[in-house]
Structure formats: structure tokens, C-alpha cells
């Protein structure tokens, strides 16, 4: 295994031991999913050429949806896309009357990231890099230097060449004016104007009056318009040198859990509008990927299948068979990892752990298989656990062995004290019941 920076291995070990998906370093432990990643890579290529895409990544809790979305996030950033992600929740929706939708937009903007700024919050860095690039370009082409007469006018002309492309899109005129306001704040060394422009772009103005006072702009980003601005961001990103914009929305099961039927339908309608936009070519340089459970899609009473428009778009082909999946369709179903793939995953976890703590790998291939067999025997069947539980238990085991060198591996895992985090079926009448840990 290649050398992993300490900050990356620390994030991997801490996150996996806690049962959550790491934000960085996933490429070091990813196994399987080659067909799924290949399909997404084709989407990214199409998007970079001016197309758009929409995918559902579907699997039960703990099966690897969030891991897959974070892997896509890393892949997209490495290829030069701007990426933004958010986990949906009761407070973060796609449609609503109490700012739940614009709250989702704000979360996306908070998490917006690029290859050079992967942690998020990259709006100001994107604009600064673009502005600095234009300054250098004007200096090279005109021979003038910043501060000389006519230099700023030439820069503004170059900036308008980009933003003029946006004015034909819905709300493009106002978006362009805010970008110009940011440049003017930059030129005048007016930090308040720059901050106001960034605040508007992040959707943080609460009233049109406030926006008009700060920027002379008469609109704000709200629950009704937020998706239009994502399309503008996608086009703008492509115009300033990125491949486009990829939006990742995880935990979409929270849309299914909305108890009020009209509100739930409103969110499904907004999702459908996003789907239609991308699939029919109305959006450019934009990819949307949604993570959810089979319940969200297939429940005919409350899920997307309860809506005829959605059902006809997502229904499986009559040629669909178990073990065969059409990866060009809108739904990617995450199949369980094979026994061989699980062994590869555990081996990679050992390598990360051993490299981080600087010791020789403590387990042989036979002992890895012994651990898997013990898990299967104790939980009854391999379908009763998911990669999340397996990884969390295995990381705990590695920590114990590393901290207690006197412990014998086989004696430990076969002892009654060796506990496993099983996944149990929730048999309560709660209509939202799913697998719980």
C-alpha cells in the first residue's frame, strides 16, 4: 500500500471505528463497485462536455450508500469538478414553506469543494482564484500592470465576457450582477462589498430589502428559486475553468418520512423537476446524485412509486434479472459485497491500521477468514450484517490487538466475551421502521 499521510490515516481510522464514512482517504480502502464507478465516470465525462446527469444510489442502511457518494465526491474533485454535498433531514428538504429548501442550498454552499480545497467552504477561494487568473491574463495580453490607467476596465470586460453567458438563464442577470459586485469590492479593496456578495451567493440574505441595500440587487435565493441558482453555479463553474458542478444529496429517506402528504409530494415534485431538467438536457454541466434506501423508491404507498410520473421513470426494465443490472439507468442498486471483496476490504483496513501505528500486520489471510466465519456464525447469516457493522467491529478488534499484544487473536474471537454489533429487524408497527443498530 502506498504511503498514506498521517492526517488521512487518522481520519480513516477514527471515522471507520465510529461507524461513519470518512470525508478523505476513501480511495485507500475502496473495493468492488467497479461497475458502479465506471457508470459514474461516464456520467462525469458527459457532464464535462456540457451534458447533465441524475442518479439514485440505493441500498439499505449500512450497505455503503454514503461511502459510495463520498467516493464519487473524491473522483469528481480529482477530475476538476466543483462538488457540493448535503445530508437531507427534517430541516433540510427540497421544497418547503419554512426555509427548509433554502437551508439545503446553504448547506450545499457551506460544503462546496474543489480539488485544491476539499474540506468545503470554497466559494471565496473559487472567486479569488478566478479573479487572480483574469488579472494575470489581462497583464499578459495588454502589458499593463494593476493600478495603471485602463487596467481595471480591461479586467471588468473580461469578467463580463463570462457573466454575460449567464444572463440568458433564469435569474442569471442578478447572479451576474452579484459576481460583478464581488469584483468591484475586490478592485476597491472593499471587504464589506465582497462579504455581501459572498453572503448573497450562499443564500444567507433573509429579505430583498437587505439585499438591495447591500448590493443593489432586488432578489434573494429562497425556497422557490434555490435550484435555479444551482444551475447557474454549474454553468459559471464551467465558464471559469472547472468541469462543472456535482451535487450529492444523501439521506433522501427523510423525504419519504415527511408525514404531511402534500408536503411530501411537494418534495417529490421538486425532485422530479430536477430529474427532468437533467435528463432532458435543460441543465448544463450539472450532475445530481441522490442516496436513499429501497423504501424511498419502491414503497407504493409513500415512496416515489406512489407517484405515477416517478414510477414510470424508475421502474425496472422487463429484462431485469437478479445479478444483472443496467448501469445506464437512473437507479444504481448497491449489491452486497462478495466474500472475496469483504476479505480484500479487511486486508486494506489492516494495512491502513498497521501503517498508521507503525507495526507489522498482525493477522494472516487465514485469520481474516476466521474472523469473517465467526461473524457469520454468530449473526446467523451474512445478510444480517452490512459492511458498516463489519468494518466497525474489525477496527475495534485491530485496536484491541494493537493495544494489548498479549492477546491471542483466535482465543479472543472465539471467547464468549467477543461481542458483535448485529443489525436487528425492527418489528414495531412504526411505518418508518428500517434496520437499526
From TrEMBL:
<dbReference type="InterPro" id="IPR021228">
    <property type="entry name" value="BrxD"/>
</dbReference>
<keyword id="KW-0547">Nucleotide-binding</keyword>
<dbReference type="GO" id="GO:0005524">
    <property type="term" value="F:ATP binding"/>
</dbReference>
<dbReference type="InterPro" id="IPR027417">
    <property type="entry name" value="P-loop_NTPase"/>
</dbReference>
<keyword id="KW-0067">ATP-binding</keyword>
<protein>
    <submittedName>
        <fullName>ATP-binding protein</fullName>
    </submittedName>
</protein>
<dbReference type="Pfam" id="PF10923">
    <property type="entry name" value="BrxC_BrxD"/>
</dbReference>
Amino acid at each position: 500500500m502506498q504511503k498514506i499521510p498521517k492526517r488521512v490515516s487518522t481520519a480513516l481510522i477514527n471515522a471507520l471505528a465510529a461507524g461513519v464514512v470518512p470525508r478523505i482517504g476513501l480511495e485507500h480502502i475502496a473495493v468492488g463497485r467497479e461497475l458502479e464507478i465506471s457508470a459514474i465516470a461516464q456520467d462525469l465525462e458527459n457532464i464535462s462536455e456540457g451534458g447533465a446527469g441524475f442518479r439514485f444510489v440505493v441500498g439499505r442502511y449500512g450497505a455503503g450508500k454514503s461511502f459510495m457518494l463520498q467516493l464519487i465526491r473524491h473522483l469528481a474533485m480529482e477530475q476538476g469538478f466543483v462538488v457540493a454535498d448535503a445530508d437531507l433531514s427534517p430541516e433540510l428538504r427540497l421544497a418547503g414553506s419554512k426555509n427548509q429548501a433554502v437551508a439545503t442550498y446553504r448547506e450545499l454552499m457551506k460544503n462546496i469543494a474543489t480539488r485544491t480545497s476539499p474540506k468545503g467552504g470554497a466559494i471565496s477561494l473559487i472567486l479569488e482564484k478566478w479573479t487572480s487568473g483574469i488579472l494575470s491574463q489581462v497583464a499578459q495580453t495588454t502589458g499593463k500592470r494593476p493600478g495603471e490607467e485602463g487596467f481595471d476596465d480591461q479586467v471588468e470586460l473580461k469578467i463580463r465576457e463570462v457573466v454575460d453567458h449567464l444572463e440568458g438563464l433564469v435569474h442569471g442577470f442578478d447572479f451576474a450582477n452579484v459576481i460583478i459586485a464581488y469584483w468591484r469590492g475586490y478592485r476597491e479593496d472593499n471587504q464589506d462589498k465582497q462579504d455581501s456578495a459572498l453572503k448573497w451567493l450562499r443564500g444567507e440574505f433573509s429579505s430583498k430589502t437587505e439585499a438591495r441595500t447591500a448590493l443593489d440587487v432586488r432578489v434573494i435565493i429562497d425556497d422557490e428559486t434555490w435550484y435555479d441558482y444551482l444551475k447557474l453555479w454549474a454553468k459559471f463553474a464551467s465558464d471559469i475553468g472547472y468541469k462543472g458542478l456535482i451535487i450529492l444529496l444523501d439521506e433522501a429517506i427523510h423525504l419519504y418520512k415527511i408525514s404531511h402528504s402534500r408536503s411530501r409530494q411537494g418534495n417529490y415534485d421538486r425532485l422530479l423537476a430536477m430529474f427532468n431538467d437533467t435528463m432532458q438536457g435543460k441543465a448544463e454541466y450539472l450532475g445530481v446524485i441522490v442516496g436513499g434506501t429501497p423504501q424511498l423508491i419502491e414503497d407504493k404507498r409513500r415512496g416515489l412509486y406512489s407517484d405515477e410520473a416517478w414510477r414510470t421513470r424508475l421502474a425496472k426494465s422487463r429484462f431485469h434479472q437478479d445479478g444483472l443490472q443496467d448501469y445506464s439507468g437512473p437507479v444504481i442498486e448497491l449489491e452486497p459485497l462478495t466474500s472475496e471483496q469483504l476479505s480484500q476490504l479487511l486486508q486494506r483496513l489492516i494495512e491502513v491500521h498497521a501503517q498508521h501505528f507503525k507495526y507489522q500486520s498482525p493477522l494472516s489471510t487465514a485469520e481474516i477468514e476466521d474472523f469473517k466465519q465467526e461473524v457469520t456464525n454468530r449473526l446467523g447469516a451474512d445478510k444480517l450484517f452490512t459492511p458498516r457493522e463489519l468494518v466497525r467491529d474489525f477496527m475495534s478488534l485491530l485496536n484491541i490487538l494493537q493495544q494489548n499484544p498479549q492477546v491471542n487473536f483466535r482465543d479472543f474471537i472465539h471467547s464468549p466475551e467477543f461481542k458483535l454489533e448485529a443489525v436487528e429487524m425492527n418489528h414495531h408497527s412504526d411505518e418508518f421502521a428500517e434496520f437499526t443498530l
